[in-house]
């Protein structure tokens, strides 16, 4: 009965369903034609072969199909085993049509990204679509909805939000979703260009227009002709350049430095800023007429701390992507406690900071699973937090139902484990400030890191030097300078 209801729910969302009576038959179907399947919905309790045995066999076969595990039996051990075995998501029976549809949609997005990566279809320009934006929160779904509407026209768009929230990704998706998808997409970081070069870089210059102009340069607007130009940090544009930008927006003309006539250009303009442009206008730093010309279709992208529902999905996508890029190509899983820890953190650097943290953890991880101990810097900044609340948020976004006994068992059993691992991770963290609240001296931090590395790698000098990124001779010199005994790094040498 439940199988039939699940089949009907999936088919209502436009998917074709192939059913198998048991795990053995299902495995044979996958081996026979793995390219036929985009997602596998797997029951953990099956005749002839359990779901965990199926996952192990699937891994040995080498298929990359995302697997959504469903079960009516709970327990943290089951969750951990399924995730370690490579499950993409976890739902509890009876699962709602909306929940399974969302899970399948997210799994198919992941599958499509991997296919593109393996086939090398993504161009060097970084062409992406709306399916490449990982989102589970209502706030980001609203952003995507607005961006899809904006893609249907050529009106100017301003993307507002803090640094690192993904403004360029949204801009590229808008371009890919419109009628200029096969045209150039040119990015300009206005805040990174010296003020005396902004005009030349944007609009180009003629040979001999100024000292050092030994040849003609067409500029970014001419490069983007027919396509889209993305002006990042537009609030940093000098006022004198804003005048020329206004003309480009109003009349579709640009003035090349040193040229006698204007050039016609046809570009879609998307701007981005982490500033409050209204305040910039009030303070005289941004032209009011240009503001109203650009701000026709504003889209505000929320900070990651305001859409924490997205964090578990982002973490798993990044972990999967970075681990697949490593030499061994082994896929890494992320345990529930780690998801809870990362969800608790506010990420002031937003998605960019989260992405960098996952990349570092994947590169340095010793095992096949990312744990709290792989994020000591984050744990050190969260000595105490409400484990239950954040596990609940993770549960809501990984298929665990907080309203039934399974969800309660999950939180209760994980609470102590998370606190234990957080304490362990905090012990491994190196403090950046001293008890007085001042930043510690670099030499003190370096000495502490060397002592920690010696203990962590059990005195293996070659490995310590390699992990610290220094030569063995340099390591020995520093041991002498700091008076560290390599056989007992917590004590000074005699």
UniProtKB/TrEMBL annotation:
Pfam families reported for this sequence: AAA_lid_14, HTH_8, Response_reg, Sigma54_activat
GO cellular component: cytoplasm
Gene Ontology molecular function terms on file: ATP binding; sequence-specific DNA binding
PROSITE patterns: RESPONSE_REGULATORY, SIGMA54_INTERACT_1, SIGMA54_INTERACT_2, SIGMA54_INTERACT_3, SIGMA54_INTERACT_4
Name of this chain's protein: DNA-binding transcriptional regulator NtrC
Annotated Sigma-54 factor interaction domain residues: 133-363
This protein's record includes keyword Repressor: yes
Swiss-Prot/TrEMBL GO biological process terms: phosphorelay signal transduction system; regulation of DNA-templated transcription
Annotated positions of the 4-aspartylphosphate modification: 43
The Response regulatory domain, residue ranges: 1-108
């Amino acid at each position: 009965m439940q199988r039939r209801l699940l089949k009907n729910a999936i088919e209502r969302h436009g998917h074709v369903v192939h059913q198998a009576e048991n795990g053995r038959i299902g495995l044979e179907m996958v081996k026979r034609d793995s390219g036929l399947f985009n997602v596998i919905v797997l029951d953990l309790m099956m005749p002839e072969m359990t779901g965990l045995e199926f996952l192990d066999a699937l891994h040995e076969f080498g298929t990359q199909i995302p697997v959504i595990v469903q079960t009516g039996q709970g327990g943290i051990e089951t969750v951990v085993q399924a995730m370690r075995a490579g499950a993409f998501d976890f739902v509890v029976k009876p699962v709602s049509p909306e929940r399974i549809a969302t899970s399948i949609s997210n799994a198919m997005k992941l599958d499509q990204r991997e296919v593109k990566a393996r086939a090398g279809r993504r161009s060097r320009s970084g062409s992406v679509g709306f399916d490449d934006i990982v989102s589970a929160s209502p706030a980001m779904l609203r952003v995507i909805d607005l961006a899809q509407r904006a893609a249907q026209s050529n009106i100017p768009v301003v993307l507002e939000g803090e640094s690192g929230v993904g403004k360029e990704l949204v801009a590229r998706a808008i371009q890919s979703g419109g009628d200029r998808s096969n045209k150039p997409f040119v990015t300009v970081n206005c805040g990174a260009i010296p003020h005396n070069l902004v005009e030349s870089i944007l609009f180009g210059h003629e040979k001999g227009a100024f000292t050092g102009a030994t040849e003609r340069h067409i500029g970014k607007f001419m490069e983007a002709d027919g396509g889209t130009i993305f002006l990042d940090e537009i609030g940093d544009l000098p006022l004198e350049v804003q005048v020329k930008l206004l003309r480009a927006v109003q009349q579709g003309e640009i003035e090349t430095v040193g040229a006698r006539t204007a050039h016609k250009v046809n570009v879609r303009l998307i701007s981005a800023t982490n500033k409050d442009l209204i305040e910039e206008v009030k303070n005289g730093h941004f032209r009011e007429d240009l503001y109203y010309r650009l701000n026709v279709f504003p889209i505000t992208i929320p900070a990651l701390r305001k859409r924490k529902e997205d964090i578990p999905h982002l973490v798993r996508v990044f972990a999967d992507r970075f681990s697949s890029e490593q030499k061994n190509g082994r896929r890494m899983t992320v345990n529930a406690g780690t998801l809870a820890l990362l969800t608790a953190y506010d990420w002031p650097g937003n998605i960019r900071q989260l992405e960098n943290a996952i990349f570092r953890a994947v590169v340095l991880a010793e095992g096949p699973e990312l744990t709290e101990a792989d994020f000591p810097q984050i744990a050190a900044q969260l000595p105490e937090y409400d484990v239950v609340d954040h596990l609940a948020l993770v549960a809501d976004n990984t298929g665990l139902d907080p309203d039934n006994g399974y969800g309660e068992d999950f939180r209760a059993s994980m609470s102590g484990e998370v606190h234990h691992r957080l304490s362990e991770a905090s012990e491994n963290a190196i403090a950046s400030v001293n008890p007085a609240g001042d930043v510690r001296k670099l030499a003190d931090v370096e000495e502490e890191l060397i002592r920690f590395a010696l203990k962590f790698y059990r005195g293996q000098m070659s490995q310590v030097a390699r992990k610290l990124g220094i030569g063995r001779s340099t390591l020995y010199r520093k041991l002498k300078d700091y008076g560290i005994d390599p056989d007992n790094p917590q004590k000074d040498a005699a």
